Amino acid sequence: MTSRTIVAFDFGTKSIGSAIGQEVTGTASPLKAFKAKDGIPNWDDIEATLKEWQPDLIVVGLPTDVRGKALEDITARAKKFANRVHGRFGYQVEMHDERLSTAEARSELFEMGGYKALSKGNVDCQSAVVILESWFEAQWA
């Protein structure tokens, strides 16, 4: 079992959630949500987070419908974001199916803190946690 540090992103056009996780434990924790304008974050903020955590790998959620088919616009934009992260910072980036991650994130947050916990940034970061922990599970399957 390896002990890589992995950062995950939940791409969105207005907000991009992030999480950090350890492969050896298969667990993740929320980091922060980055504001985005039409899917474009402040790349300096992304860079600062990557420098702080120095991940071995980055996982970006791949938005699809419940049957796993690409969604009209957002799937391609998430792929473009992943390609830009790789191109700008040189990290290996993997895409991972994020089906129903937002619904699961909302449910987990509600259990922890009720409606007050359901702020947009919290949901986006918790979605990144769900994506990363799902990625861990897929590695062990």
From TrEMBL:
<keyword id="KW-0540">Nuclease</keyword>
<comment type="similarity">
    <text>Belongs to the YqgF HJR family.</text>
</comment>
<dbReference type="InterPro" id="IPR005227">
    <property type="entry name" value="YqgF"/>
</dbReference>
<dbReference type="Pfam" id="PF03652">
    <property type="entry name" value="RuvX"/>
</dbReference>
<dbReference type="GO" id="GO:0016788">
    <property type="term" value="F:hydrolase activity, acting on ester bonds"/>
</dbReference>
<comment type="function">
    <text>Could be a nuclease involved in processing of the 5'-end of pre-16S rRNA.</text>
</comment>
<dbReference type="InterPro" id="IPR006641">
    <property type="entry name" value="YqgF/RNaseH-like_dom"/>
</dbReference>
<keyword id="KW-0963">Cytoplasm</keyword>
<dbReference type="GO" id="GO:0005829">
    <property type="term" value="C:cytosol"/>
</dbReference>
<protein>
    <recommendedName>
        <fullName>Putative pre-16S rRNA nuclease</fullName>
        <ecNumber>3.1.-.-</ecNumber>
    </recommendedName>
</protein>
<feature type="domain" description="YqgF/RNase H-like">
    <location>
        <begin position="4"/>
        <end position="105"/>
    </location>
</feature>
<dbReference type="InterPro" id="IPR037027">
    <property type="entry name" value="YqgF/RNaseH-like_dom_sf"/>
</dbReference>
<keyword id="KW-0378">Hydrolase</keyword>
<dbReference type="GO" id="GO:0000967">
    <property type="term" value="P:rRNA 5'-end processing"/>
</dbReference>
<keyword id="KW-0690">Ribosome biogenesis</keyword>
<dbReference type="GO" id="GO:0004518">
    <property type="term" value="F:nuclease activity"/>
</dbReference>
<dbReference type="InterPro" id="IPR012337">
    <property type="entry name" value="RNaseH-like_sf"/>
</dbReference>
